[in-house]
Amino acid sequence: MNAQNHTDNRVSILAIYHIKQGQKLHVKSLMQEMADASSNESGNLLYQLNISDSQPDKLFIFETYENQEALDLHKQSSYYQNIVAVKVADLLACKEVFILNPLSIS
Predict the structure, then answer these.
(1) Is residue 94 helix, strand or coil?
(2) Which of 14, 20, 64, 81 is buried most deeply by CB count within 10 Å?
(3) CA end-to-end span of the chain, whole Å?
(4) For 7-18, what is the HEC assignment?
(5) Cβ 11 vs Cβ 101: under 8 Å
């Protein structure tokens, strides 16, 4: 395993969306639109949507950005504000968001 350099400024997000019953297809469609737009951002390194076979009512989203500024720009985008903050928010029972930073191993 390669150790991460302590100057690595990448910021990653793990978001877990608990989808309301009957809304899975709608949320998946909206989030695919979000993934397509986000993947084209200059500071975005990864935007991956995942579904678990054992927990089909949850959507797991992995995101990585070059730095905090890139993440902030992402959250300020019109598509984030429209899709995540408005449309998807009403379709979720709850969501968990974890902000992750690379672990420096010496």
Answers:
(1) strand
(2) 64
(3) 12
(4) CCCCEEEEEEEE
(5) yes
Helix (H, G, I), strand (E, B) or coil at 44: strand
Residues in the chain: 106
Cβ pair 71, 65 in contact under 8 A? yes
Q: Please give the Cα distance from 96 to 98 (Å, whole number).
A: 7
Per-residue pLDDT reduced to its tens digit, 80-98? 999 999 999 999 999 999 9
Going by the DSSP 8-state scheme, the letter that residue 77 receives in this structure is S
Residue with tokens 């905090």: 68
- Residue 34: which of 87, 80, 72 has the closest Cα? 80
For the segment 15-73, what is each residue's pLDDT rounded down to a tens digit?
999 999 999 999 999 999 999 999 999 999 999 999 999 999 999 999 999 999 999 99
